[in-house]
Each structure stands twice: as structure tokens, then as C-alpha cells.
Amino acid sequence: MRGIPYINRSMIFNMIILVGIVLLVTISTWSYFNIQYQKESAVANIVGEIDRFGNTIKLGTHYAMMLNARDDITSIINNISRQEEIKNIRIYNKEGQIKFSNISHEVDQITNIKADACYICHRLEPPLESISLAERTRIFDSGLGYRNLGIISPIYNEPSCSAASCHYHPDGKVVLGLLDVVVSLENTDKQILTYKHGLIVMAVVSFLGTSTIIGFFLMIFVNRPIKRLIAGTRLIGEGQYDSIVEIDREDEIGQLATAINEMGRQIGEKQQELNRQRDEYQSLFERVPCYITVQDRNLQVLKYNREITRNFEPKPGDYCYRAYKNRQDPCPVCPVANTFETGVAHESEEIVVSKDGTESCWLVRTAPIRSASQEIVAVMEMSLDITQLKHLENEIRRSEEKYHAIFNNIPNPVFVLDQETMEILDCNDSVGPVYGMSQREMVGRTFLDFFEAAERDHYSKQLRIANIFNQIRQIKGDGQAIYVNVRVAPFEYLGRAALLVTTSDITKRLMAEQQLIQASKMATLGEMSAGVAHELNQPLSVIKTASNYLLKKARKKEPIEDRILETMAEEIDSHVDRASKIINHLREFGRKADVKRERVQVNEALSKALEIFRQQLKLREIEVICEFEPDIPLVLADSNRLEQVFINLLINARDAIEERCQEEGSGKTAKLIHLRTSYQGTLVTVEIRDTGSGIPDTILDKVFEPFFTTKKVGQGTGLGLSISYGIVQDYHGIIRVDTKVGEGSNFIVQFPVTGDY
Ligand SMILES: Nc1ncnc2c1ncn2[C@@H]1O[C@H](COP(=O)(O)OP(=O)(O)O)[C@@H](O)[C@H]1O
Ligand SMILES: [Mg+2]
Q: Which segments of 218-331 does DSSP mark as H helices, in order?
């Protein structure tokens, strides 16, 4: 079977054939030309020899010819022609008649001078007298199996001949006759043949020898190692990557062996890596904690992973719906069938009822598996039990709904603001009743819209840095003002920095407070009424005295001196001024104060409060010492409110001194109210110190409570300190008391200076 086709395929054989052909052609060509050369040179040698031999005959017979000694000539010719190789020696005369010949019967025969040897000279007329040796030479077949060589040489007329006495040749005759010598080439041809045979044998031997040597070397150095290399590569192909082709050489074959060994090693490594990856993917497929199957068009399961085996133990060729979905028919929505149809991945959620009746929810995903020709040959289905996830999802949804409900039902408005832009990202339902706008209208607007235009910049900064804002004035959707307390907490909302803002509408409470403050003010006014009446009494009595005097004079029709009249008019005028000043002050104090704040000088407010009291304190012999810091900084408050605070504290001081006087008896104690204002750093301090009864420890923590009083019914309302406390706090101030029973009390009120909060 491995005969000719194998030989054709063998590189060595082809090479040998090729080298052989080249050798054969080379040697043959060389031999041919060599033989030709040998032949020609042998003939040339013989021709030279025969020509010289001809000359020798001519010289040998010269004398005999001169003497015309025909017998001598014949005898010389016969003797010479006895030599083996000499076949014929003839001497022709000019007419072509053989005059002498070693063959006796030829003598006197006439040859056609236009034929054979004569033709060379006689082809032209007159015949040529001198021609070259080559032209004189002729080779012809002897008819006996060998060739003959004939050379003719002309016998020229010489002076010795023309002048000879024997027989006379005239001078004008150039050629007297011809000598024709014919020799046999039998030996020469034999030698040439032998030489030819020798050369052919040598060519064949060298062809065979060279081919054999080349073949042998190729066999040893090329064919065998190549066979080993082929065997080695076959082994690599069969997977024996560590098999080594051992060729310990440094030439190309050795390098090829090294390259093949290296290739085998690398393929081995790559194969190992591929195997490792394949095993890894196989184990991934097996171990992945969800159900994976590969199905054909009929939904028959071709492959499945360990999770399927463990839970369902399917039989090979089972239909997917029977194998692990506990159904008798295909699912109504089948992503595998869809994938076969559309060629793309599909996804669905399926409710699977297990044998014990429990329902579980699976997330099913499919992917097509294609052949090399892109045809879908199978579909991989991956099912993940998401029951727990669904459960959690429901829980989350419920929880979200719950928190949403809580968020919406928080009675206070709650806003989610973008920290940068103050845009309202979300808000609850409670914003509607407070701000007069629905939740939908709110979202997308900026929270700063609800501030007065002048305050927006201020709050835009403040909302980002402060957490608590009390009694903020805001503008509702319909333009009405409301008062709110604001709480701000930064947090992250859907991945962005946000502020959670709750506001509580304190408008109503504030109004009630205002009314309470007003009521307490009225009560204070009531308490003050006795003192005020007394205060008004003095100017009234002065006016009364003056009017009585004027009436008396008028009735008596007595004239009044101009000087007296002027003095009286001035007196009445000044006392009317004083009275109206007191009334104005009372009216001013009694008016309903605004919630707004302004820059206030505490010294001024304290002086005004004291003004109303000065007279009655004087009557009660209570001394007032004022120690006011002249350059006191302004505070942010309402002067009317501050006055109310100071009046409350002054009334309390007055009452405490009175009480102490009643207890200890008048004249025993110093009746002193010491008013002092000062500032330290950022705080303005107002102190109202009295030498009254002092506050016992038992009630000290109650004095600021509303409606707490130790005074008799009709004298105290118990609102003075609590309202003062509220007012001071509104202006970010503090109020406290230092007190000692039997020594007196010192009420200290402190406010931050303007711009400090
Ligand atoms: N300067 C003071 N010296 C002693 N006790 C005082 C002083 N100021 C207030 N008190 C006590 O605090 C109580 C509450 O004061 P307040 O709130 O002004 O109500 P009222 O003056 O109507 O009683 C007073 O009844 C009194 O017992
Ligand atoms: Mg009081």
C-alpha cells in the first residue's frame, strides 16, 4: 500500500531522483563532449600522421619519379603498404588515371575526376592547386564494418622535375598528380568505442555512487530524524506533551527538534491551563447555587447541575416541566421556547408548586447555545429561587408604605430639601393645611419661597449651618404670614445631600401668648393704677389750686397781676404736659406689641420702665440707684416687651421690699433698688437688685412657673416672671435670680449683642 504513492510523497526519493537527473544530465553531457573531443583529437592525430606519412612516401618516391623508375615506385609503394593499417596507396596522374597502386589491378584505371577524392580540387575549373589538410581528408565506410581515412596530397612540379632530362614536365604545370593514402580506422574506432564504454560505465558508476551516498546521508541525517520528529509531533497530537524528540544536533533539524519540544511543552502548559479552566467552569456549573439545565427544542433536559440532581433527581431525557417543575404540561409562558423562537435571552418569574404543595417563586432566565454555524442547538435555563427575596420585597414594600403613611401623617409639615439648591424634593401631606398648597404644588419649588424676599439669602445660609430656628416668620401660599419653629437635620436622600426640615406652626400659640402677655400687661397696668393715679394727682391738684385761685379772683372781680397770671399759666401748662406724658406712656406701654424685633438700647427701656414708678417708689421711700453703662451695645428685641419685663421685675422688687418692711417694721431695713447695666464680651447684662424679702429655697424653682404667686388674691397674678421668662427667651436671652432670704434678690437678665446669633 505504501509503494508508489509513498515514494512519490517521499522527499528523499524526490531529492534523489532530482539529484540523479542533474547528475545524469551533467555526466552525460560531459561524456558526450569528451567522447566527441577524444574522437576528433584521435582522428586529427591520425590525419597528421597520415599526412606526414604521405609526405614521406612522396619524398621516398621522389627520386624514382625523377628517374621515372616505375618499378622502383611500385616496389616502394608495395613495401610501405605492407604495414597493417595501410589499405591503399595510389598515385594519380593529372587526368585521374591511377599510375601506381599497392593494389595491382587498379593500375591504369581512370577515375572520374569529378567524383570521390578528386572532387575536392576538381569541383572548380581550373582545379584548385592548393587546399587545406582538412579538405584533403575524407573518412568513409570501408564496407567491412570499420571506417577508412583517406588523404590526398598533390604532387607539385618542382624545378628539379621541369629541368630533368629523364622526362620532362613543362614549367607552367603546377600539379603533376596526386598521392592518395587510405588507412583503416579500425583500431582507432575500437579504441574510441572502448573509451566511450569506459566513460558510460564511469558516468553510471558516479551517478549511482553519488546518488547512493546522497541517499545514504539523507537517510541518516534527514529522513530518520524527520521520521522521529513526525513521530514526536504525532505524540503531541495524541496529547503526550512531555514526550521529547531527542536529536542532539545543532543544525536546522536539531533546532526544529528543540522547537517541537518547546512547542509540545507550551501546548502542554496551555492545555493544562485550558483543562484547569474547563474544570473550573464545569465545577462552577455544577456548584452554582441555582438550578441550571440545558434543554433541546422539545424541552427535554440534556444536562443539569448538581443542585438539580440533589433536589429533583431527574432521569435523562425528562421534560423540563416534569423533571423539576412538578407539572404535567409545559408552563404557559416558556422562556426556553421563546429563546428557541427569537434567538435572544428571556426572563420570567414562575410560581412553582412543589410535591408537598408549598409554593415558591423562581426567577427564570434563558440563553441560547449556538453551534459553530450560529444555529441554536440548545437553550440554557437558569432558575433562581427568589421566594425569600419576594417575601423580603413585600416586607420592604409594606414597610415603605408604613413609613410613607407615617411620613404623611406626621401632623407637622416635613420637607426634604436639596442641600445645595433648597429645592423641595419631597414633603408630607401636612404641608397642605399649614402652607395652603398641596404636596404636588410644593415639590419642585424652593423652600426659600416661603420666606420674605429680604430674608431669603440669610436663611439660605442659615438652614445649612443651624438646626433650630424658633419663631420664624414665613409667608403662606396665599400671602399670609405664619410663625413656625423649624428643625433641620442633614441626611442623604437618594444619594444626594439633603436636609430634613420639619416646621411646626406656632402662629396660634404665639397669638395666645401675645394675648396672655397683653393680659398680663393689663394686669400690670391695673396693679400700677393706684400709683399712676397718685402720679396724676399731683399735676391735677396743682391745676385745681390754680383754677380755684382764678375762680375766686374772677368772682370777686379782682384783677390779677400779669406776673402772677403768667406764672400760673406756665405752672398749669407744665403740669398738663406732665399728666399727658404719664398717660401717653401708659398708652404706649398698654399697646399690643409686635412680634418683630429691632435694635434696642437696654438703658433706655429700663429708664422708661423706671419712669412710671419713680413717683410711687419715692412715696414708699424706696431709693433707686441707677448705674448704667453708657456705651452699652444694642440688643435685638422689642423695646415695649423689654419695658414690660423690667416693669414686672420692678413691681416684684417693690413688693418684696414692702413685704420685708411689713414683716420687720418700717425703718428697720434699707429700702433700695439697685439698677445696673453692663456688658462683657458678647453679652449685655441688666441687674435689678432689691433689698426685699428674698426667695426661700423651697419655692425658688417655682417662681418662673405661670400662675405661681405668694401674693394675696388681687395683688399678684403669678404671670409676671413666667411671661418675662418667655419674652427674654424669645430674644435668645436668659433670666436668672440670685437671692438670699432676709437680704434681697438680684434678677439678672442677659441678651446677646446684635449680630451674634
Ligand atoms: N424680687 C423678689 N423678691 C422676692 N420674691 C419674689 C421676687 N420676685 C418674685 N418673687 C416671688 O415670685 C413669685 C412670682 O412672681 P410673679 O411671677 O411676678 O407673680 P406675682 O408677682 O404676680 O406673684 C412672687 O409671688 C414672689 O413670691
Ligand atoms: Mg409680679
A: 224-237, 252-287, 306-312, 320-324
Q: What is the Cα–Cα distance from 231 to 227, expressed in whole angstroms?
A: 6
User: Rounded to the nearest whole angstrom, what is the distance from the C-alpha of residue 365 to the centroid of ligand 1?
Assistant: 81
pLDDT of residue 114: 63
| pLDDT per position as a tens digit, 424-441 | 999 999 999 999 999 899
Tell me if 527 CB under 6 Å of ligand 1: no
Nearest CA to ligand 1 atom 9: 652
Closest CA to 235 of 255, 258, 256, 265: 265
pLDDT of residue 3: 47
Cα(216) to ligand 1 centroid in Å equals: 137
- Please answer whether residues 384 and 362 qualify as being in contact, where contact means their C-beta atoms are separated by less than 8 angstroms: yes
CA separation for the pair 138, 136 (Å, rounded): 7
What is the predicted pLDDT for the residue at 124? 67
H or E stretch including 204? helix 186-217
Which pTM does this prediction carry?
0.49
Question: How many Å apart are CA 438 and CA 429, to the nearest integer?
Answer: 7
- Please report, for residues 56, 136, 150, 196, 204, the alpha-carbon distance to residue 37 in angstroms, rounded to integers and kept in the order given: 28, 21, 21, 11, 20
Walk across the sheet containing 623-627 and list its strands.
Answer: 623-627, 672-680, 683-690, 744-752, 734-740
d(Cα 605, Cα 639) in Å, to the nearest integer?
6
Best residue among 660, 673, 703 to mutate for probing ligand 1's pocket (most ligand atoms within 8 Å of CB) is 703
Mean pLDDT within 350-365? 88
Sign (positive or negative) of CA dihedral 181, 182, 183, 188: positive
Q: What is the pLDDT of residues 272-300, one digit of tens each?
A: 999 999 999 888 888 888 899 999 999 99
Q: Determine the average pLDDT of the residues in 635-639.
A: 92
For ligand 1, atom 7, the nearest C-alpha belongs to 652
